[in-house]
């Protein structure tokens, strides 16, 4: 008896079940390949899919296409550290935190998941911090070009000559820089929350006032107490609060360091470091902020045997240890401390509680190991100019180099290659411009 023809829907169902069945076998084979030792030859996903397509044809006499290959989701599902129940708990937690205005970033979510896995698997759960997901950071063109071979050579010669001539010791080598903190600001970060069309908001205080923190570190691994500059026209008693970092407190109309504050800071710097210097010269590395070059600042530095060296313009992202090593971590810890405080207390960060919240983050980051790393990675102590590689520098595009380049592109400019630089510049202005 002739049977009824299968419907199109039934045929699709059968084909889908056949595809899923052979794909499951291919995934199992692929996982077996991944489990092989590093010295064993492994088959790739495409090869395994091709082999199982041939196997299916041998078994059934029908062709099948393993579309999409072995997906990451199917392969990784077998390696998940979380159980299905734990996964649902994590998803509910993500949604709840997002709905309350405290969405989890990738890093904070990983911390919570790690705690769950450690609780169930103990030492069987391997934790690694070797890699991370980062957002790219824009670097201005003038900063990218500032560190060129000529600037680099001049900086190292100046630093070496100063250290040698004045016999600067490790415990007398200092670096200082300023970090801006906004109670309601902070880095924008990727966060998780409920799937929806509207933005995922994160609760923050409404104040946009800038608070400046002056951080001073020494090559021997020590750090001075920070100086905190509030925006205001006069000191207010309510600013007195719990101060775990023993920060010095000041104020200015805009919340930034100005010339007057710079003079007060250099006086305090001398007071805090004079005993350790024991009448020896101290080296102070600063950026190009104008508060470091007022007459009063430089006069006090000269009188107190403090040698002030300024990094070349637009190069602190390469030469300044606080920028290279410390500030990125410090900003993240401060941001975490602020978010945690606001979540627990429901209060916003203001001048009345800033020192209490910022202080523990400052102490956590400014460890002797981190401070010494800041000087080591920038080649200040121990002195090592090789830390700045050729890849970190922009080419030194002089006028001679530019003319040589053009002469190769335009043969009519070739005679200029034999002319002195001053004549090249004069002739350059006489050339027609497009």
From TrEMBL:
Q: Which residues form the DDE-1 domain?
A: 209-375
Family matches, as InterPro entries: CenT-Element_Derived, DDE_SF_endonuclease_dom
This entry carries the following GO cellular component terms, namely: nucleus
Q: Where, if anywhere, are coiled coils annotated?
A: none
Spell out the molecular function terms from Gene Ontology.
DNA binding
Q: Which Pfam families match?
A: DDE_1 (PF03184)
What is the protein name for this chain?
Answer: DDE-1 domain-containing protein
Look up and give the organism this protein is from: Paxillus rubicundulus Ve08.2h10
Upper lineage is: Eukaryota, Fungi, Dikarya, Basidiomycota, Agaricomycotina
